[in-house]
Amino acid sequence: MKLPLEKYMLPCVNKKILGIDCLGCGMQRAIALLCKGEFTAAFYMYPAIYPLLLLLLFLGFNFFLKFKHDSIIKIGLMVTTVLTMIISYIIKMKIIFN
Questions:
Q1: The overall pTM is greater than 0.90
Q2: Is residue 39 within 8 Å of residue 49, measured between CB atoms?
Q3: Hey, is 88 helix, strand or coil?
Q4: Distance of CA 30 to the CA centre of its chain
Q5: Please, how many CA atoms are within 13 Å of residue 72, restricted to the half-sphere of its CB?
Q6: 14-56, pLDDT tens digit by residue?
Q7: Is 11 exposed, middle or buried (0-12, 13-18, 19+ CB in 10 A)?
Q8: Predicted local distance difference test score (pLDDT) of residue 16
Q9: Contacts with 49 (C-beta within 8 Å, 6 or more apart), sequence order
Q10: Contact call for residues 45 and 29 (beta carbons, < 8 A)
Q11: What's residue 10's pLDDT?
Q12: For residue 43, how many other CB atoms are within 10 A of its CB?
């Protein structure tokens, strides 16, 4: 069953012009899979979805409540998210080009 969200997904400009996925390719589909409750499929589609959601949840929570070491937690979550994005992208490109 297709969700209404899937009808309005934006195409990847990088993939259309260069023919190569970008670091964000798969994020929209992973969010759609999360909405359907397909958590494992969402991870396989875009592995950085869970660190990204954790970061967004923390930022939203931290907007209302301040912690003593919140900047350290934010930096740690950002680094984890970016590293997950980069490592999964490198693995995807190795699989595609080998």
A1: no
A2: no
A3: helix
A4: 7
A5: 3
A6: 888 888 888 888 898 999 999 999 999 999 999 999 999 999 9
A7: exposed
A8: 85
A9: 27, 30, 31, 34, 42, 43
A10: yes
A11: 81
A12: 16
